[in-house]
């Protein structure tokens, strides 16, 4: 059984990012995630977790949508679109729980000539 049974094609980077979005040390959020997993599919809950973490890490204002909403038909802020394009250009996922940290790590590894882990 796949980790994420989704209609759309997920890349390895997407699967990795979604798994990290589900993993949390925040006890309150972890309980919410566990409760959601009892009622909803893993992919849907992982997308919710990714959305939540991106809003937190990017310090988005109410109404601003995170990179994980790009391509859904939602009206995404141009600055967030730039972040999404950078993620994709570096082979990362739009579901990265912490986009800035992922970009920083990828750029560091790119300068060193090796892929990020």
Written account of the structure:
The chain has one domain (12-112). It starts with 11 loop residues before the first helix and ends in a 5-residue tail after the last helix. It has 117 residues and is mainly α. The protein has 5 helices and no strands. The model has no long low-confidence stretch (mean pLDDT 88). The longest helix has 17 residues, at 42-58. It has helices at residues 12-22, 27-39, 42-58, 78-89, 99-112.
Tell me the span between the first and last alpha carbons. 25 Å
List low-pLDDT spans. none
Number of extended strands: 0
Provide the structure class: mainly alpha
Integer average pLDDT: 88
Give Rg in angstroms: 14 Å
Number of separate helices: 5
Give the biggest beta sheet.
none
Strand content: under 5%
Helical fraction equals 55-70%
Counting copies of identical and different chains, the oligomeric state is: single chain
**String of helices and strands:** HHHHH
Report the principal-axis shape: globular
How many distinct folded domains?
A: 1
């Amino acid at each position: 059984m796949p980790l994420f049974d989704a209609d759309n094609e997920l890349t390895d980077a997407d699967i990795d990012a979604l798994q990290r979005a589900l993993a949390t040390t925040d006890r309150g959020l972890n309980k919410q995630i566990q409760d959601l997993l009892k009622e909803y599919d893993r992919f849907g809950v992982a997308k919710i977790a990714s959305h939540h973490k991106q809003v937190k890490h990017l310090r988005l204002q109410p109404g601003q949508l995170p990179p994980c909403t790009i391509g859904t038909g939602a009206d995404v802020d141009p600055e967030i679109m730039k972040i999404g394009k950078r993620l994709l250009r570096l082979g990362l996922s739009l579901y990265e729980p912490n986009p800035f940290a992922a970009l920083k790590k990828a750029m560091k590894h790119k300068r060193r000539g090796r892929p990020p882990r």
